[in-house]
Amino acid sequence: MIILLAALLYTFLTICLWYGWLATPSCETPQSKTSGVSIVVAMRNEQNNIGKLIKCLMVQQWAGPMQVIIVDDHSTDHSVAVAQSFIPLCHFQLLVIANIGSGKKAAISTGVQQATFPIILTTDADCQMGKYWVQTMYAALQQPGTRLVTGPVCIAPARTWIERFQAVEMAALIGSTAAFIRFHMPNMGNGANMGYWREVFEQVGGYRSSWQIASGDDEFLIQQVHDCLGGGVRFVKSAAALVTTAPQTNWRALLMQRRRWAAKWRSGRPMRVWGVALLVGLYHLFWVMLPCVAILSPSLLTDIICAFSLKLASEYVFLNAVMQLLRQRKLIGYLLPLQVIYSWYVVCVGVGAMRGGFVWKERVLVR
């Protein structure tokens, strides 16, 4: 009975996320004349990717002036030279500057200080997007009362098992982000696809309250805007706003990235954020324990199969809707085999994050 009740609660919560995703209004791409926008990109060791990003920005269908600020976070490869080679080719102002401090938060803050226009868009140096990205993100920020927006991100390519694993996981994170924002409980976002008014960034003090934490530039800013300014966070539900980012190529790199993401959870966070994180962690621990329960108590096997069936069905409904926007519905078929390892993966990442440091882009961070 306990197993089935827990499964029913999980199913209910997943269906709530599905409803939140469906209830999130779609955003249309405007055709009217627009003013200027500044795009800030933090870059470290991205010599193979930064050129692709700049080429995407060069073909943006944008009627107003545009400024792109690439902030080099002490790269040890040829990233700066590659970025600078595009300066004479761009029809917009392209600045390649050095990070005043160290880390992504310092890089974004450096870029914002150099921004000319009141609207800031941010993405990562390994990302690509369609030609209406700037226009769509700008339009979302023009909606009454909107202070900050975050948009959809997908993992591409997704050819190998590890790449498909990351693509499905990212779809779940994006869908959850939109749903919680719709419920006026923003607790996460993705800095690879964000935008905000520069004055909003300054009003909340930028990253001053979370400067000592290596990750979380996106989530901390979203939570600060919501808590300090009384809301104004919006999810841009539009395929035109979609940003793609490259997957990690091996399990070690993936686990290190996820440990970096999870490291921020030990810091002071709003109770709504702690509550969601704790509930998710407990549920994945619950799913990990069920196979052991089946071995020790074979009589409960029927209940356990029903529980997993409810879980799979609710996740299918939710992720199928999200992947339609991300143009990755063909990956929904991998949901079943991924069930075998995903909860173990979440538990391992959580334990690793609690133990301490990680290595990321040749930097060793120890807490």
CATH architecture of the largest domain: Alpha-Beta Complex
- Our Rg estimate from Cα atoms comes to 21 Å
Distance between the termini: 42 Å
Helix content percent band: 40-55%
Largest sheet: 7 strands, mixed
**Overall pLDDT, averaged?**
89
CATH topology of the largest domain: Spore Coat Polysaccharide Biosynthesis Protein SpsA, Chain A
What is the helix/strand order?
Answer: HEHEHEHEEHEEHEHHEEHHHHEE
Which CATH class of the largest domain is shown? Alpha Beta
Strand content: 5-15%
Shape: globular
CATH superfamily of the largest domain: Spore Coat Polysaccharide Biosynthesis Protein SpsA, Chain A
Number of strands: 12
Counting structural domains, the number is: 2
Walk me through the topology:
Layout: H1 2-23, E1 37-43, H2 50-58, E2 66-72, H3 79-84, E3 93-98, H4 104-114, E4 119-124, E5 127-129, H5 133-141, E6 148-150, E7 153-155, H6 161-182, E8 194-197, H7 198-203, H8 217-229, E9 233-235, E10 243-245, H9 251-262, H10 271-296, H11 301-326, H12 335-355, E11 358-360, E12 363-365
Can you characterise this structure?
By secondary structure, this protein is an alpha/beta fold. It folds into 2 domains: 2-19 and 270-354, no CATH class; 28-250, Spore Coat Polysaccharide Biosynthesis Protein SpsA, Chain A, CATH 3.90.550. The protein is 50% helix and 14% strand. The protein has helices spanning 2-23, 50-58, 79-84, 104-114, 133-141, 161-182, 198-203, 217-229, 251-262, 271-296, 301-326, 335-355; strands at residues 37-43, 66-72, 93-98, 119-124, 127-129, 148-150, 153-155, 194-197, 233-235, 243-245, 358-360, 363-365. The strands form 3 sheets. The protein has a 7-stranded mixed beta sheet with strand order 3-2-1-4-8-6-9, with helices on both faces. Strands 5-10-7 form a 3-stranded mixed beta sheet. A hairpin with a 2-residue loop joins strand 11 (358-360) and strand 12. Helix 1 runs parallel beside helix 11, helix 9 (251-262) packs across helix 12 (335-355) and helix 10 (271-296) packs across helix 12. It starts with a helix and ends with a strand.
